Amino acid sequence: MTATSAPTRDAQPVLARGRVTLRPLATAGLAAWKRIHAHFRDPEIAFLNGTPPSRMPMWLMRRVLRSDARRPDRRTYGVFDERDDYVGTVELYDLRGAEATLGIIIGERTHWGRGYGPEAIEALLEHAFGDLGLERVRLHTFADNPRAQAAFKKVGFVELRRVPARNDRIDVQMALERDAWAARHRLGGAP
Ligand SMILES: CC(C)(COP(=O)(O)OP(=O)(O)OC[C@H]1O[C@@H](n2cnc3c(N)ncnc32)[C@H](O)[C@@H]1OP(=O)(O)O)[C@@H](O)C(=O)NCCC(=O)NCCS
């Protein structure tokens, strides 16, 4: 590729927005992996994410997540704050055709409710609708996670439906279309 080529769909550039920088998970260092390990073992975060807390040792988690991140249908990024500390993970998965699913974990409680989640999502959406040329990004969250719903609505996601999920929970399905995202940006409505 020449220096003037457009980014290919396989490229995983460093992405930035406001205070956050997203770096491909494959490039994370030891300090970041210690935090990732803690985030994935945290029972409250696991509940919010709808998964059991991980019991893997760090070396195995690193191997598994690095291998997952290499899948062609995934783009997994570490979220770094303005001090360049690792604060969470954001990704696109099930990337097929012009659609993908978004997942996010801001794992540092000190960073909850301070806008880091929406900034990280905005950075990834710009890549999704720009370089990757997606038409639609969808996601799932739970009805008992109002903070996540508020954060997703803030960046333009709209609720599609609610369906019963395991353990008496309600799955809230949301999506954002490229045209709606572009219109918000043209009108200056993005946070
Ligand atoms: C969900 C998450 C990505 C949101 O990112 P964030 O940076 O904390 O989001 P924000 O700073 O925009 O805060 C969320 C909004 O929810 C609102 N909120 C918080 N608790 C709320 C509640 N109980 N009811 C209603 N709104 C609530 C906040 O007031 C804030 O809105 P405001 O800025 O207009 O006041 C992040 O908190 C996170 O990763 N949490 C842990 C894991 C998780 O829940 N992941 C999502 C799984 S689908």
Characteristics of this structure?
single chain, 191 residues, alpha+beta, Aminopeptidase, eight-stranded mixed sheet, 29% strand, disordered N terminus, binds coenzyme A
Q: What report would you give on this structure?
A:
By secondary structure, this protein is of the alpha+beta class. It has a single domain (15-186), classed as Gcn5-related N-acetyltransferase (GNAT) (Aminopeptidase, 3-Layer(aba) Sandwich), CATH 3.40.630. 33% of the residues lie in helices and 29% in strands. An 8-stranded mixed sheet has the order 1-2-3-4-5-6-8-7, with helices on both faces. Strand 7 (158-164) and strand 8 form a beta hairpin. The longest helix is centred in the middle third of the chain and has 14 residues, at 116-129. The protein starts with 14 loop residues before the first strand and ends in a 5-residue tail after the last helix.
